[in-house]
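re: that complex we talked abt at group meeting.

here r the seqs, copy pasted straight from the sheet so there may be weird spacing, ignore it
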Amino acid sequence: MEETEGGSGVELLDKLTILADAAKYDAACTSSGLDRSARPGGLGSTMAAGCCHTFSADGRCVTLLKVLMTNHCAYDCAYCVNRRSNDLPRAAFTPRELAELTIAFYRRNYIEGLFLSSAVWGGPDRTTEGMIETLRLLREGYGFAGYIHAKAIPGADPLLTRRLGLLADRLSVNIELPSEESLNRLCPDKGKGAILAPMAQIRDGIRESRGELAQYRHAPRFAPAGQSTQMVIGATPESDRHILTLAQALYDKYQLKRVFYSAYVPVSDSALLPARAEFKPPLLREHRLYQADWLLRFYHFRAEELLDDGAPNFDPRVDPKCSWALRHLDFFPVEVNRADYEELLRVPGIGVRSARRILTARRVGPLTFSGLKTLGVVLKRAQYFLTCSGKMLEGLRVNPDGVLRHLVALERPALAGHEPEQLSLFN
Amino acid sequence: MGWTQVSYLYDGSFAGFLTCVFDSYAHREEPMSFSTPEDGRLTLWPERRIGTDQAKARRVYQSLDKKLGAEGKRLAVQGFLTCLEEKELHLWRFLRLGYQLGPGFTRGLADERVAAVWKAVGHLTGEAHLLKGFTRFSEVDGVLVGEIEPKNRVLPLLRPHFCARYPGEDFVLHDRTHREVLLHRPGKWAIAPAEDFRPGAPGEAERQYRRLWRRFYDTIAIAERYNPRCRMTQMPKRYWGTMTEFQTEEPEERKELAP
Ligand code: SF4
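got the structure back, here u go
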């Protein structure tokens, strides 16, 4: 193993390569949830809507300079590339190097900010201190007002986590795996308690800070863009139902802004994990989980509506909303000119934007199917589930099997990006 | 409607277009086409040359708020920045409908006249949103210089964003398509025509940061998830030409900045 410490040895280009490579499996890369402009003499702003600066060759949005402070790790989590027992080049940024790089990238509009995480080296406290020093340099030294997402390190002194949260916009603690059992098996050094404790601390810190801000405008802001987490999907045997129920509980109990799902990419030959040779990252499954997560957050669905013991996993062929609709045909058809917002949102193919447009446009007069098209509502899926003034779309024949077949056919091109082998995993 | 059908020849400016609107109402004329001297188009209708008149333009502009409502005004103003084919004609019909129906007419999304402008403005704001991310700057002699090739005239929409992002910087953003630049110095900005824009050559520090960025870009993709189609949908190829991560290393380095 190549050993390098601090600023010595490895060139900046090599360090960046090693420490970006080590961070790339983390799915979170958003900069959303906060509007802020630069302070006088400062640099940078944030946009509530978030902003993708590029898309990598795997089609993922790149918003932040996502790197580890160091990939030297004292722990040995089986599913992680950076585990102690893995033989790979190691490096560490100095706080100054990383702050300068962030500013240089930010000024060129390559990025919206920094996503700083770290392997655990020299203990959780020392690790967190290095991160704090980087963020302090950025905020105080450079007057940087761009976005910062920092990973809280489980086991760190709560006072240090607090300082981290006062410098960052978003904090996250990764739940890592979808169950305690898997966690104990694969990350013997981390317990569920070590993960949930900082999560609760961050939740309370955010709540407190909001309360103080309501009273004094200049109260310190603690993680103003909220908290998120991520878990690895497909390394362990949990069902979609288990995962989605967990996500829902995290939203409910810890007021998380986002839960990210990361399809396991085989990085280890451990007998505890799926064998590397045949394993393909379950990308389609990850995609369905994101769709379902979206339904939880914006469409007022509950996990238990989407999956149950009879069907604990998503149908790979159609999206979760279509599959819900097909199991609840009694809910349909929905009448375009009378349905309320919530009902419209349950129609496959109708999103938040289409539902809002329908509500707006029908105040002027009753809508027809051709009117819906002019509005920009895509009818390919929705047509089976709608009536306009009591009438179905003319010439449309509906029986449940036919609808399923049609919806599956519509999805096929969209699924082409996912390896077709994927489908057989779930059948 | 019994108005005379005509064709307007005007200077292509927004004030010029508003003058056309004023004159069309004053003379009860219905424009069937608009052209500018550069188009040199022939027309089927009697052609009227409209000289831009700031006073008339201002009167029309000031009527927009009251007659069309805030949303109608926004669509009319931003509609003029779009690359919609025959945008003046669409906008004239849109305004006419607004003058007839009053504020709230923009809700009639099922009306072709409203939908066309909505769609074009959606395309404009969508493109501006993407370019907030896809624009790249280089540092040349202490000034940040960026270039884009948008379909719509996005500079007025990008202006507040980049001014808020770089309040203390001198920067220039060049729109190659419409030959315009956004210029910024701390506390001041301007959007101006630029016929012959040539950024200076990058220095060694600049080239080093480009290398670092390309390396980062190449490193963060996960090979097992390779998905070029998805990347292309999210980030159409037409934007790649001005993005640092898709340019090759020096010595071609200078070419990427050539117009
Ligand atoms: S502590 Fe973090 S970096 Fe270290 S092995 Fe575990 S997951 Fe990987």
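couple things i noticed - Helices of chain B lie at 14-26, 54-79, 87-101, 112-134, 155-165, 204-220, 228-234. Chain B has two domains: 4-126, 135-246.
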